[in-house]
Amino acid sequence: MKAIGRLMLTYLTGTPASRWVSLTGLLLIAAGSACLLYLPPLRAGIGQSSSFSLGQEVMLLLLPIVGVLLFFFGTALIPRIVTHLAASHIIGVLPRGRLKILASAFTTLSVVTVISGLATVVHFLNFPVSPWTIFIRATSIMFFTYTVLYIIVFWIGKTRNTIGVLGGAMLAIATLSLPVQFIAAPTTPLHWPVLGTLLIWGTVIAGSAFASHFKIACLALGRRATLGNSRTQAAKLYKPGREVDLLIGVDRPWVLALGQVVPIVIAIFFISRPSLWLFYFALFSSISGAITSLAAARSRPLWLRTDWSRSELFTRVEAAFWRNNCYAIGVLLLLFVAIGIRSEFDIVPLAMGLPLLALGTGASTYLGLMMTRGVGALEAFLAITTMTLLMGTAAYAAEGTADIGVVIVLESILAIFAVGYRHLAKRRWSSIDWTMCRPDRTLRSAS
Amino acid sequence: MTPYIAAQRLAKTFGRKRVLDDVSFRVEPGDVVGILGKNGAGKTTLLELILGFTPPSSGSVQIFSHESFRMPGSARRRIGSVPQQDELLNPLSALDQLRVIASFYENWDSELIDNLSRQWEIDLSERVKNLSVGQRQKLSILLALGHRPDVLILDEPVASLDPIARRQFMEQIVSIAADGARSVIFSSHIVSDVERLANKIWILKDGRLSWQGELDVLKESIVRVHVRSAAPLAPDFTLPNALSINREECHATAVLFDWKPHILKDVESQLGAPVEIESLGLEDIFLELHR
After folding, report:
1. N or C, fewer C-beta in 10 Å, chain A?
2. Helices A162-184, A274-287: inter-axial angle, 10-degree rounding
3. Where in the sequence is the domain holding A350, given as residue range(s)?
4. Do B85 and A434 touch (CB under 8 A)?
């Protein structure tokens, strides 16, 4: 119990940042809930007379929501610490080490969920639904949401490219909208999140319990594969004439292109609204260009071994990335049309969505190519601006009332961004400094 | 003779941090240069400047008479490089990795690579990701040697090699430099290897070349002297160009820089006491220079 308690405390207060975030989150939840419980009813939002202005009511309602978010992000160390400990050798000698780590993560997650659930009950106190139903719905969906978010947070921490981090962040934001959908609409069935939670935690528990057996089996399998197939599989990967693609890591375009299919097919069960679909696809269009942010670091061996000047190198690398991205965007456009027809989208979001997805890939590709010096303030600002514009356009274009002229203007701005990024990328590559984009530097940027 | 590499007052800063300052050197054909320095002394940055990966903040570095940052492809093809972190392609087999790199060169010496891979016991059918750290290092070295470069630049090339592989690697480097037409520059923390292999030493300290020259000259110019006086030595007793000095009543031990034989006679006549000279190994010299 002592070890579990210590681990839980570490998850919540392991770093000065997590300490402050967790504490502020708890305080905001307490303060916000107290306001909702003891202050006069908030009625301005429904057009009735109230002791508060609409702005004040919005602020009061937001307090516990922000608190819940902060309290959750205060425990963002969980995936990092759990995976680090679980993969370490020390786990083998600690008495019941795996069980304790797993129990600590599960208990912390339960605590965060229960506190979030209670805050939700207070938030929906005036709704004509029983508090118990709200609590059950809130805790069920939040446990699932937090589990998925921990996986995303872990992925963001591990990913080596900047746009991957941004993609993860956007995915996290999209995931955060899950509770709203499920709690606010009490008729939404809960079996998907419950099943998802059971699946994820079942996998984690099984993986933890049989980790050593699993490791041995994997090693044996790997050895057999190495003995049997290593030469033939490797031979398939290397085709003379594709050396440049191999060196910059874009020799297998179908992996990325087909990799998009799985999450999109899964999303069919969750997403029905065209606005959400376009938003979701726009996210993928930006991620397909993500690997370009690694192009600068990977191009170094090419410069040393070819006759190309730095400017010529940019042209070759750009062409190689487009050869790769064409597959990804092609598959994405086909899927978008197929889902649009199946879900009977209006013609406007469908027609406006296609160029938007292509522009998303274009802008993110050149944004990535532009990153020859890691991620500074300018790059971060441009990346956030581009993602906001892309997502904003996607959300707007999918609305039934969207003005086509406005959508065209927004897409034109995105196109100007892409052209501008290309210009900047070309200029930066003409004097690229590879000490500014060493692999270790890229890692630091990601962290 | 035209040097392969020449640097004049080279400096490099990253933001406010000055990594290299006022570094000048020449590398002639046949030179085997060992670079020594503590972590963060600027060894990798110096090698990257020579390779043209980064422009100097001031000064210049020329390789084959071209500014390194803008050197043409013809000059780059005469360079072989082993980076500190390998740039191997994990999914490929070692053989395919060699084939990929060989495809960039018209003068790839397959026979040399076959011989070396046999001698160094690299399983070419194995996937790169399954190779041990030492095997990866050996493969990286093969990739740098295959086109028989005129200048070979290696950043910590033997860090992960076992003693046998290190010896084989060093023999190879010696044979490369033996024809007198090629040069090798390498950095290493293993001082004994540098001592065995290099004929020129560069010692980097705080971004400056605190010493550069031939190994023998370095060893002759830095010595440890033992002074034994009949009378107690003065508390402020010192010796010219002393890097460090330890005094114990009638006995003092000092490490002297820029040692010349005539100093021995001067000190002996000044103190009226015998002075013993002790030669230092490169490791001791390195430690003394970093006190």
Report:
1. N
2. 160
3. 249-446
4. no
Q: Report how far residue A264's alpha carbon sits from residue B254's, in angstroms, rounded to the nearest whole number.
A: 74
Boundary (domain end) residue, out of B197, B218, B239: B218
Is A387 among the domain residues?
Answer: yes
Residues on chain A touching B74 (C-beta within 8 angstroms): 307
For chains A and B, CB pairs below 8 A equal 75
Domain presence at residue A233: no
B99 contacts A240? CB cut-off 8 A: yes
CA dist., res. A414 & res. A382, Å (int): 12
Cβ-defined contact of B76 to A240 (cutoff 8 Å): no
Strand order in the sheet with B251-256: B242-248, B251-256, B223-228, B275-279
Does residue A330 lie within any of the structural domains?
Answer: yes
Residues of B within 8 A of A300 (CB-CB) are: 53, 87
Whether the CB of A311 is below 8 Å from some CB of chain B: the reply is: no
Q: What are the tens digits of pLDDT across the range A262-291?
A: 778 877 776 777 777 887 888 888 876 667
User: Shortest Cα distance from B28 to chain A (angstroms)?
Assistant: 21
For residue A298, which of A243, A346, A261, A338 has the smallest C-alpha distance? A243
Which amino acid appears at position A203 of this protein? T
SS3 content of chain B, % helix, strand, coil (to 5): 35, 30, 35
Neighbours of A8 (CB within 10 A): 18
Predicted TM-score (pTM) of the model is 0.73
Looking at the structure, do residues A295 and A438 belong to the same domain, yes or no? yes
**Mean pLDDT per 10-residue segment, chain B (291 residues):** 91 91 94 91 93 94 94 92 87 89 91 90 88 89 92 86 82 79 89 87 91 88 85 80 84 85 77 82 86 77
Mutation for A interface: B78, B104, B125, most A CBs within 10 A? B104
Question: Of A142, A113, A120, nearest to A32 (Cα)?
Answer: A120
